[in-house]
């Protein structure tokens, strides 16, 4: 889907991030351009650094899917690109599909050609600890330069700007400093996210809005949990008991086997803790709802808006596919 041509584009000085290597040495522009080849401009980093990053960062539940869509042929990490290799993972869907911040951080670059060799509209988010994400070929932006974002916040829409053969998100993950890319698929998988759009995985110790949704869904079943977003022993024990009652492995992981039997199909008129869980994850995606447990007209509109932005059937009903996209 991506076609990179011509010489790498310059980075504007005012957009330059701290960008240091894992040893603390500042990355030079020459270092960024090393191995540019057909405009990729970044060195591909193998599994050892990825494993190190996953082992040293506490990220359970802190990452989410940046976009819904399919993996196009030839759009995978490491695919040949002239004299270089593809530095990210492409995710295809129509122009206008919603894009989200993959984790909390700061928007340090926003504009056209924000990384060497990248064409079209792009965003770079600094997540701290030498970890960055890049989002390319955007149709529109919904965050400004310097904005602080949380995981799941809308940042723009999918597009076909720059040298492309069709609309898609070009998504990159960088560890050890901006300029060292790793394969986004295993990187995100290690953080509980399936870039193909499957159910996320939350392990004991996780925190955040999705944990609040799990706690609310369990409370609908009488668990009596404190909805604090911390997936500690009391919450994980309740989930384990639920899993056992459903004939699942009682490991406390809320993943692809547990989510489908945990969520409810909800529509306008529903009331209860399960609706609170739905409102919480809608808010994670920017809905701004009052979490009151009442599925009224405002919540229905929020569901329909989310469904439309993510190319789901727009019926206002929160069924398994909508839940899957919300908690991804």
UniProtKB/TrEMBL annotation:
Organism of derivation: Streptomyces tardus
Pfam families tied to this protein: Peptidase_M23, PG_binding_1
UniProt xrefs under Gene3D superfamilies: Glucose Permease (Domain IIA), PGBD-like superfamily/PGBD
Residue stretches making up the M23ase beta-sheet core domain: 85-177
GO molecular function: metalloendopeptidase activity
Origin: domain of life: Bacteria
Domain Peptidoglycan binding-like: from-to ranges: 207-260, 272-326
Region of interest (Disordered), ranges: 1-26
Protein name per the record: Peptidoglycan DD-metalloendopeptidase family protein
PANTHER family: MUREIN HYDROLASE ACTIVATOR ENVC (PTHR21666:SF270), PEPTIDASE-RELATED (PTHR21666)
PROSITE patterns cross-referenced by the UniProt entry: TAT
């Amino acid at each position: 889907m991506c076609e990179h041509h011509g010489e790498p584009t310059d980075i504007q000085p005012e957009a330059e991030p701290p960008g240091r290597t894992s040893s603390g040495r500042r990355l030079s522009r020459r270092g960024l351009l090393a191995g540019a080849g057909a405009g990729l401009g970044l060195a591909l980093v193998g599994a050892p650094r990825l494993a190190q990053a996953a082992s040293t960062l506490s990220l359970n539940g802190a990452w989410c899917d940046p976009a819904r869509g399919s993996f196009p042929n030839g759009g995978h990490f490491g695919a040949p690109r002239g004299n270089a290799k593809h530095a990210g993972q492409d995710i295809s869907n129509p122009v206008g599909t919603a894009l989200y911040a993959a984790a909390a951080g700061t928007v340090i670059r926003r504009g056209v050609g924000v990384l060497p060799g990248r064409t079209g509209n792009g965003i770079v988010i600094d997540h701290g600890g030498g970890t960055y994400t890049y989002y390319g070929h955007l149709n529109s932006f919904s965050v400004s330069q310097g904005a602080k974002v949380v995981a799941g916040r809308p940042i723009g829409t999918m597009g076909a700007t720059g040298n492309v053969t069709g609309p898609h998100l070009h998504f990159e993950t960088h560890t050890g400093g901006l300029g060292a890319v790793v394969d986004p698929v295993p990187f995100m998988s290690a953080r509980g996210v399936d870039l193909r759009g499957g159910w996320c995985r939350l392990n004991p110790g996780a925190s955040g809005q999705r944990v609040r949704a799990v706690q609310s869904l369990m409370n609908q079943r009488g668990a009596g949990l404190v909805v604090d977003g911390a997936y500690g022993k009391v919450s994980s024990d309740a989930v384990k008991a639920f899993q056992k009652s459903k004939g699942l492995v009682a490991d406390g992981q809320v993943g692809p086997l547990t989510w489908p039997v945990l969520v409810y199909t909800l529509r306008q008129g529903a009331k209860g803790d399960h609706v609170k869980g739905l409102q919480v994850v809608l808010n994670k995606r920017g809905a701004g709802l009052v979490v009151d447990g009442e599925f009224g007209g405002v919540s229905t509109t929020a569901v329909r808006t989310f469904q439309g932005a993510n190319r789901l059937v727009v019926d206002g009903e929160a069924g398994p596919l909508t839940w899957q996209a919300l908690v991804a």
